[in-house]
Design goal:
Number of strands: 14
Oligomer: single chain
Strand content: 15-25%
Number of helices: 15
Structural class: alpha/beta
Bound molecules: pyridoxal-5'-phosphate
Strand order of the largest sheet: 4-10-9-8-7-5-6
Shape: globular
Radius of gyration: 21 Å
Order of helices and strands: HEEEHHHEHEHEHEHEHEEHHHHEHEEEH
Largest sheet: 7 strands, mixed
Length: 390
């Protein structure tokens, strides 16, 4: 091994020793909630495809039609020749869906975060983040060059302290960033209160609805819509790759926000436009979640969640989200229980540092409308049997 590879191999060995090394698993076939991974057929509890749309015929057909009409690739960035009809249709549909004047799509939610935060805040500005926001928002905030402050998860008093601090500093811009449903804990932000606070201090709010889009509100618009505060959130972000079943990210907001991002969001400007297939599939997903079929799928999902929560030791009340964490603590415990579930034909991922804090390792179960009641029963039985295995 040369010195370069030697250095990397030593770092991987250190991860291995801490139970933190990650490895790709090869999924060779997918059929709804079933997948074949490393040659084994498993029920998948790891996907964020909460409504089962990723394999829905309407999305598949939309993707295939877009390939026929526009090709496999977009050919260029949006500001060159890559701004195709499917992108504009998707953005109009997203704006109508979210009830905003405009929307902009990105290749991924990650790219939406990096481009948008960097466009909105920089040196001399203040960004205030919830401690548990997704890594893409942390990376985005760090890259922006703004002064960062972090408040304890969902702690409104700490948020207000920081808003007050930012005001005293005379910051030109104070941007608060949080999520509606937290990706590794499955709990929700106190959005109404956060909106009240940021308004009182004249700050702006960027809200990541990655795990709420498609799931909350009358047509799946998100948690801000369900709570009646969407109109007061300056920057609404989400992904097209979870409940919406496709891929990509979006920002919804005012016309001037979108015009500004087209000029300033570097991940939008300097990157090839999303491929037509993903964009058309996302459009089909956005349409579908607003139909009676979308409402039925949401209802089925909440039934599965209500069925699973008690077995996870979570209160049966308040079916808050499709993400059920089973916190086990040590990295090794999470790996062991995940392996025991795999033996029983269930794929439930162990989530470890740095995705969550050290010694907060957990199983992260995500449920889908495509799971049957029997799938969930199999899961809860297996969890009861293996969670205390030594
Ligand atoms: C998944 C996720 C993202 C990133 O979205 P992608 O489209 O997968 O890049 C952003 N924020 C949160 C909270 C997420 O869970």
């Amino acid at each position: 091994m040369n010195a370069f590879d030697q250095s990397l191999a030593e770092q991987l060995a250190a991860l291995e020793a801490q139970g933190l090394r990650r490895q790709l698993r090869n999924v060779s076939a997918v059929a709804g909630t079933r997948l074949v991974q490393d040659g084994r057929s498993l029920i998948n509890f790891a996907a964020n495809d909460y409504l089962g749309l990723a394999t829905h015929p309407a999305l598949r057909e939309a993707a295939q039609r877009a390939i026929s009409d526009f090709g496999a690739g977009s050919g260029a960035a949006r500001l060159l020749s890559g701004s195709l009809a499917p992108h504009l249709e998707l953005e109009e549909a997203l704006a109508a869906f979210k009830g905003t004047a405009a929307a902009l799509s990105f290749t991924s939610g990650y790219a939406a975060a990096i481009g948008t935060v960097g466009a909105l805040a920089g040196r001399g500005d203040v960004i205030i983040l919830d401690k548990l926001v997704h890594s893409c928002l942390v990376d985005a905030a760090r890259l922006s060059g703004a002064t960062l402050r972090v408040f304890r998860h969902n702690d409104l008093a700490r948020l207000e302290d920081l808003l007050e601090w930012s005001t005293r500093q005379g910051a030109r811009t104070t941007l608060v960033i949080t999520e509606s449903v937290f990706s590794m804990d499955g709990d929700c932000a106190p959005l109404r209160e956060i909106v009240e606070s940021k308004d009182r201090f004249g700050a702006w709010l960027m809200l990541d609805e990655a795990h709420a889009t498609g799931l909350y509100g009358p047509g799946g618009q998100g948690l801000a819509s369900e709570l009646g505060v969407a109109g007061r959130v300056e920057v609404q972000m989400g992904t097209l790759g979870k409940a919406l079943g496709a891929a990509g990210g979006y920002i919804a907001g005012s016309r001037v926000l979108v015009d500004f991002l087209v000029n300033r969001a570097r991940s939008f400007i300097f990157s090839t436009a999303p491929v037509p297939a993903q964009t058309a599939a996302a459009l089909a997903g956005v349409s579908l979640v607003q139909t009676p079929e979308g409402a039925e799928r949401r209802q089925r999902l909440w039934e599965r969640v209500a069925q699973a929560r008690p077995a996870m030791g979570l209160p049966a009340t308040a079916a808050q989200s499709a993400i059920l964490p089973l916190i086990l603590g040590p990295e090794s415990a999470a790996l062991r229980v995940a392996e025991a579930l795999r033996e029983r034909g269930l794929y439930v991922p162990a989530i470890r540092y740095p995705t969550v804090a050290r010694n907060q390792a957990r199983l992260r179960i995500s449920l889908s409308a495509a799971h049957t009641a029997e799938d969930v029963a199999q899961l809860t039985d297996a969890v009861a049997a293996v969670r205390h295995t030594p």
